[in-house]
Amino acid sequence: MATQMNLNVGLEGSSITRPPFFDGNNYIFWKTRMTIFLQSLDYQLWHITVNGPRFPMRTVEGVESVKPENEYNDNDFRMLQLNSKAKHVLFCSFGPNEFNSISSCDTAKEM
């Protein structure tokens, strides 16, 4: 009995800091767990995963365009960092087969 308990230590789900692992099976189960995991880290991570990142914009003479990076403020950087953080969490949750299918995505939403 003690041997069985020791085998369970380190199995997926035993840590609240490690994202749920997706091996290509049981997507609905993984999606539900990943939703809660992202929301527990920072609710905006889930928001960005669902809606996509908000790219910094500026308005010049009534025309809206993407801000050049040298004009970013702290909030602009935070929003872009959240997309990177969400991508990182997703990358960490996939095995090699699933990783190959998402590695070229630019946003967590695409993934």
Automatic annotation (TrEMBL):
**Which named protein is this?**
DUF4219 domain-containing protein
Q: Which PANTHER family match?
A: DUF4219 DOMAIN-CONTAINING PROTEIN-RELATED, TRANSMEMBRANE PROTEIN
